[in-house]
Amino acid sequence: MMARIAPLARMTEFFGLFSLSGQSTSFLATLSVAWITGWTHSQRGGFIVVVAFLIIGLIGMIWVKEERAESL
Predict the structure, then answer these.
(1) What pTM was estimated for this model as a whole?
(2) 3-state helix, strand, coil in the chain (%, to 5)
(3) Residue 10 burial by CB count (10 A; 0-12/13-18/19+): exposed, middle or buried?
(4) How many other C-beta atoms are found inside a 10 Å radius of the C-beta of residue 47?
(5) Of 26, 37, 57, 58, whose CA is between 20 and 30 Å from 66?
(6) Which of 53, 49, 27 is nearest to 38 (CA)?
(7) pLDDT at 69 over 80
(8) Residue 65 pLDDT class (50, 70, 90 cuts)
(9) Residue 70 scores a pLDDT above 80
(10) How far apart are CA 33 and CA 71, in angstroms?
């Protein structure tokens, strides 16, 4: 998807931002799961964080346009 929508002239910038967002999300998700699991004393409580991250990502995909962006 990223290769299809990123402008050809700025492809490396888009993939760098994609990598940064993936790493920060993996850090925040792990920290959130650990914190909520400890707070609720339940693995089910920690799993709610995983579901919340997936729902937030799905909602964020609503604004993604599938045509290739023009380079500035």
Answers:
(1) 0.70
(2) 80, 0, 20
(3) middle
(4) 13
(5) 26
(6) 49
(7) no
(8) confident
(9) no
(10) 38
